[in-house]
Structures are given as C-alpha cells and as structure tokens.
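debug: dumping io for the single-chain case to check the tokenizer round-trip. Nothing else runs in this session.
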Amino acid sequence: MEAILTFTQQLYRAAQDASADDFHDVALAHLKQQVRFCAALWLVGRVTGREVEVHRLHAYRISPAGCEPVVCRVRQQPESLALAAAAPHRVHILQPAVPSAPVVHHELLIAAAAADAAACGQWLSLQRSQGDTPFDATDRETLRLLMPHLTEARAVNRALRLLRASNEARLEPRPHRAVTLTDGTVLHCGAHMREAMDATWPYWSGLCLPPELLAAVRSCGELTLPGRGERIVAHRFSDALVLCLKRVSLRERLTRRECEMVHMLTAGSDYTEIARRYALAPATVRAIVRQSYRKLGINSRTQLARLVRREETE
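debug: decoded output
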C-alpha cells in the first residue's frame, strides 16, 4: 500500500509539472516501478457501436510495427469500455491474446477505463519481452488499482495546461472559439465553431481536430473553409492551441472587378447597366457574376445581398 501511495504522489506531481507532451512518458516511467514491463501503448478513443475510434496513441519504447496488434486487440473487444463505464470504480482487464501477426513482445496486459458517459475511454497495454516471466494475478490487480489514477492524472494534467494557457492569453470560452492541446485533443469548442467544423468535416467526432485542420494550423496557422466565407486561425499558448473562426471579406475572396460588380448588383443595378460601365456584353457580366457566386458558395441574389449587408455591418 505504501508503494501505491508513493506512486500516486509521484503521478499527481507529474500531472502538475509535466507538459502535455511529456506527461505520458513520465507517468509510465513511474508505473514501471510498480508493474514491470519493457514497452507500453496508451490509447485514448471512443466506442461507436461495435467499433473503437482511436484519437490518441502514445507509444512508450515500442516501434510503430508493434502498435497495430495492440490496436487490433482493443478493437476486438470494445465491450471492455462498456463494462468499465457500467462500473466506473473498476477497471476491466482484457484477457491475454495470441496476436495474429508476429510481434516483438509476446506478453500483453491491457486495462480499459471509461473517462465519461459518452463512451470515451482509455486503454493501456503493458508488454513484456520473450524470455521474461508472464504477467500474474498480482500484476493484474496492481494495474487494476493504478489505472484510475493514471486516467485521472491525465485529465488533471490537461486541465492545468488549459488553465495556464487561458491565463496567459486571458481566454474566455466563446461561440466562435475552440481550445485544443497541441496534439489536437479538443478541450473546448464553441457552438459557432462546432457548426462550421460539422459542416466542413461531417465525420468529425468532436474529440480531436480533423487531420486536415490540424496539419494546416501546424504548418501555416490557418485554414480557409471552402464555400463558407470563414477562416480558422490558430495561435499557440503554452501547451494549447487557440482556434478562432473569422469572416473572410469579399475583397479577399473575389477579384477587384468581381467585387465591384456584386456591390453594384446588390445596390440595384441590372446587368445592362453594369455591362455599360465596364464596356462588356451583358452575357459576359452574367458569367462573371455566376463565377463570383461559385467563389462565395451561394446561388442567388438574395444570398449575395445578405453577405454584403453582413459585411457592411461588421
């Protein structure tokens, strides 16, 4: 019991002091003093029906080739998370499995714990190499006792990182804003931001940024949403990314002549008057206006008038 108390003290101290990127390695190094293992894989995801969506993988001294058998094993038993959710004070230990493909480590010990009622949870696989003694009942019981502390310490670590980032940036939750960790894990997503992301990425789960968005904000700090007249701009504060949804002006989306024509159109001019102004045929003006509609993601003059009016009032 004293060893477990020491472990929890070390773990929660790491939750306070370690960055979000370093926490997993520090926590597993402390766990290694309680349950012997040579490699580990920490999965975070969600059960949807009979499938497991993996949103975060942290490999500890394990090659990418060794990850896939463990992920497959977790996906074969998604009910492990349902069992953990039904009894939140207990951790479900998956039965050892013989992998279908050769792996470096032959002995697996996997624990599953539910994080909340939305079928979100975590799986931790500890592995021993060939020639080492198999995991026994004591190892399983120790992991069963320590897994809840690992999941809670991870949540504390992320909450503190968000609080620190919020204090640095003086952030307040707003409808057009999202706050994530640097790995894309979503901590807060406002209603307007969620609506824009749902429309752009229908498959988005809400737990982690879509890969296309995460790659874009990491490389250039922003991404324009096609057909919406909006742009997501990201700034980094400490261990967090702050994403803001911003309007893209008509002048940024259209050429100068296209912009002038659509403003004349909404002001009441007809195609003949616009054509006379630019010394063009009315059919050419219509083609330019249709092209402007496509760029703006609209298909009527009413929608165009709404866009122009909104821009003038902002």
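debug: round-trip ok. DSSP finds twelve helices and ten strands in the chain.
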